[in-house]
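call fold(seq) -> tokens
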Amino acid sequence: AGQAFRNRRMPAPTHGSIRDIVKQRIIAVVREVKAADSMKVLILDTPTLKTISAVCRTMEIIEEGVSLLENLERRRQPMPGMQAIYIIHPNEDSIEKVKNDFKSAQDSMYAGAHIYLTSHISNDLIYSMRQCNELVQRTKSLKELNFEFVALESQCYSLGLHDAFRTLYSPVTVAKNAMIHTIADRMLTLCVTLGEFPNITYKKAASAEFDMVEKIAKALQVSLSNFDKQIVEGNSWWQPKRSEPANILIVDRSFDALTPLMHEYTYQAMVYDLMEMKDSKYKYTTSNAKGEDVEKVSSLDESDALWVQLRHMHIADAINFVIDEFNRFVQQNKAANMAKGEAKSLRDLSEAIKSMPQFKDRLAKYSLHMDLTKKCMALYEQKFLEKISTEEQNMATGADAQGKALKTVQQSVMNVLQDEHISEKDKLRLILIYVISQEGLSEADVDKLVSSAHLQNTSSAQRIVQNLKHLNVTLKQAQAKPKGMISSGMTAASKLFPFIKADSDKKRPKMATDVGYDLSRYRPPLQYIIQDALEGKLDPNEYVTTAPTSSKSQAETNSNGPSRNPRNKASWADKSAIRRDEPKEASKSKAGPRLIVLVVGGLAYSELRAAYEMTTKFNREIIIGSTEMMAPEAFLDSLAVLSEPTV
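ret:
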């Protein structure tokens, strides 16, 4: 037991996707615990349950010899003949619950304890554990796993900090510094899990009010250096790729308040915008073999191969893809082919699925995505999203679908706001997009805009508009200009997206060449920041790289590429926000070190899609994440309470 309390760190596999790596570590933990004559019980607290359920199915854990899965926070039956595997967050509450499982020799719930911690445990908590004699006697292992994050997808992680947005941007926050260090600590566990000792690049703050990114970067650098020193001195397993280290790029939500508000019509983004989703779970009603309606819950994650294929497609393409894939399945399976002819519509597909119960599991996926795509398109029609999105795209790109620069949008926006068929939340999103895309508005103009929408709670809408200033959005009009005119001097744009400078000749960049849909012209600015990072062209006047730990690392950092001339205009002011130097398909030889992106304050699904697109174009591994994934409604809700004091 004494040795268990000294040997606390566990090596990590560092190959494969981030989901694969976390899964491998969990399986390794379960396999490491040998229970010859007794069975194993796996006990998780709530944060760890989310981490593990994101990458492992229950059956996969059971197949490794686990007889029972338990929640640490719920009442459990004693199993004195079992070995207990605890995978828990090292906080006081969880440690106390573990101690309570071993109050005495007579009251111990399990034969032995194998304790695995998701991050570094404090000396105070170690001391507390040592005071429980029975726990010390029965503890066979105590190790740190280092995964204080959730691997949502093969290239996406979440730090699970849903209060970060409010804590970091609220003018009445009292816990900003604590949140900064929590983010840095959790990013440390991500780096350790990936086996990376990275260079860290962060975006300069527009003002001291938005300096959290710099503080996170510096705190992470200190934590990495301390961890590296401690491990190198005491262990040999920590061998990060020092010759080709990853690059961490840190930005925060204040660099772009526009993207989370935009309607996006790729499948994943549309689902999370329009449907009620909880932890990637979708609840829906379908028909069984008897034609009876049954309620189902499905996980929209990478265990569903069809979801992986569909998630970044435009909704129109996704619908056609589901039908084509189903017809291909029918053609390849004789029994299915005998049951039904070729499906040509979603209705045909639904009928075909009902007629083939013997292909239940396979067809369940077709049924799921048929249901989802149908509902998304139905809501698209019911919510008049074409009308709304036309105005969004025009304001965000500064041009109409034909590429003609717009001079004024106020009247067309007012027409949409006055439409009684438009929902209040969609009206509010349109108002915020209008405010963001201007150089600032007078209070009278804002009042007129809000009042024209006929909202039930105009004061709440006014408060949300005013809260935009806490995200570095210009609200007050700097100088007189015709009402409703699209910004031409890019004053507000340069502040909102300061990595882009205004053109001296005020000419707009060239039109995009890859736009397939009029309502998908806008591209998130993060896409171009990622591209510059991959090409080594981030503007040194806007981005800072923390001092590497060796001269060799410094030389590699400096050789990433020449500094790029500042860009001309805000991404939302460019037709479809596509830059003049569109990235070309990359060859296999373009591969290089990992790029790890952290968006503090919430990541939009359109930004997640953009990261995958950059991976394909540049043949580079990009791992992107945030304090949380943020759908538009969650962004609105967060803005609404931003200036309210925390309880």
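The mean pLDDT is 82.
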